[in-house]
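Notes from hallway chat w/ T.B., transcribed later so I don't forget. T.B. wanted the structure written out for a chain they're using in a teaching module, and asked if we could keep both sequence and structure tokens in one place. Agreed to drop them here.
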Amino acid sequence: LPFNQIGDVGAQHLADGLQHNTTLTTLNLYNNQIGDIGAQHLADALQHNTTLTTLDLRFNRIEHIFGTRLKELIERNKQRTKS
């Protein structure tokens, strides 16, 4: 879904779907004008999602702290899929 101007509201809707999704492993949100609010929604969703192992958020407006948290959650999912 790169270059779709999803923004924070769109990220919230995607996060709602990600919470209970059990099949999606990769999500490309490259250059979608997602900010910290959208990143927080995605991080909240990843607390429940265990299958997403690749999340591309390059060229968005996400502060380092939120990017780091999202990376930690994705790494956790990668470790779970190895087990």
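Follow-up for T.B.: The chain is about 50% helix and 5% strand. Might be a good example for the class.
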